[in-house]
Every structure is written in C-alpha cells, then in structure tokens.
Amino acid sequence: MKYCPSCGVALGEDAERCPLCGAAASSEPNAASDAGGTMYPRPDDSGIFPPPRQAARAENELSASERRRIAVELLSLAFGIALAVTILADLFASHGFTWSLYASVGIVAVWLVSAMPLLLWNRPWILYSVIAPSLVLLVFLLDAFDGRIGWFLGFGLPITLLLALDAAAVASIIGAMKRKGLNVLAVILLGIAAFCVGVEGTVDLNLFGRLSPDWSVIVCFALVPTAGMLFYLHYRIVHRASLRKLFRL
Hints:
Layout: E1 2-3, E2 10-11, H1 31-36, H2 52-60, H3 64-94, H4 99-119, H5 124-144, H6 150-176, H7 182-207, H8 215-238, H9 243-246
Antiparallel strand pairs: 1-2
C-alpha cells in the first residue's frame, strides 16, 4: 500500500500522487504521522483546517515585519559596503579624505530615506521626526567640510526646512482625506509648486536681496491648473462614475 509522506493518509496501489496535497506517493508510511500526527495541518483560530499545501506554506512564509527587517539588513549591508569602498578608494587615491566626505553624506542620506520607513512602519510622525533633523544635519555637514557654513545658512537650511514642512503638510492633508484617488496626486502637485516657489524665493533673497519670481511662476502655471482638473475629476466625475465606465474599459 502507498502512503502520502505529507498527509500520512493511505493511498491506492495505483496512486502516483496524493489527491489532497499533490505530494508524490511513497511505499512507506510517514513516521511522523504515525507518532502523533505532527505532519497534519492544524486548525486556525476559527477551527477550520487549512489545505495541506497552504498549511505548509504558512509555516515557511515570513511575516511582513520579518520581511521588512530582512530588507533593512540587506540595505544596511549594501550601503555599508558602498560607504567602505568610497572611503577606502579616496584614502588610497588621495591619501586622505576629500571627495569621499561628500559621497558618504549622500550614501547615508539615501540609506536613511530608504531604511527608516521600513524600521518605523506605520509610525509616520516618528519617522518624520527622525528623517527631518537628520537631513538638516547632513546638509550642514556638506557645507561644514570646507570650514565654512555660509551656504548652509543662506541656502541649505532654508531649503531643507522648506522641504520638510512641505512634505509634512502634504502628508497631513492626504492622511486627512476620507476618500483618496486623483485628489492625492493633486495635493502632491500643489506641494511641488509651493516648494518651487519657496526655493526661488530663497535663492532670490540671497543673491539679489529681493523677490523676483521667474521660473517658479511657469511651474505654477503648469501644476496648479492640472491639480484643479484632478480635483474636479475626483469630486465631480469619478465620484459619480467609476474610471472603468468613464474611459469605457
């Protein structure tokens, strides 16, 4: 008689595979199932037995938190190697630390932006309170490496703070929306337009001592009407008709 090595059930002599789980039939009974049925699937909290294949998969699959932790470890390893190679290459080529200081700041910044969201999953404001000051510090280091901080005070600090405040405002507005869709993209476009206006204002005040709107006006003329159209589509058209019906898909 043949047996299923996974389920432990007896099969017919002509059976090649188990009809329950699809495992190849064996001529010997499964020792684990004879000893106490440890190979059988266990019921979940609702008392329902999952199919054998799903039960085996559930034991081997990683949880979402475990996958995020592994991703952080891999990112840290990759960026750590890149950081070490950058520093060693500069040390051997220049016999000191020159360009590697700036490259290292960039590597650390990218690691922060990519790894912190995984570490602080579902905790957006803690994530923001970590990333925003860290980016300000990294921008400060970019200017402090040459012994002066004039660029940081005039350009780096205001633009970095503007970016942080703009991102916080956009995230807060999107988070407060009860029904998300095209309105999310519209808010992002308005945030980009506001950031561009702030960047040009900062540059003008530092270079000319006065505001002289130029390219940011063109950006606003492109983004603000587009955002308005997206709001209209979301609240007046898409709200009443699905996109499938709207575009006849």
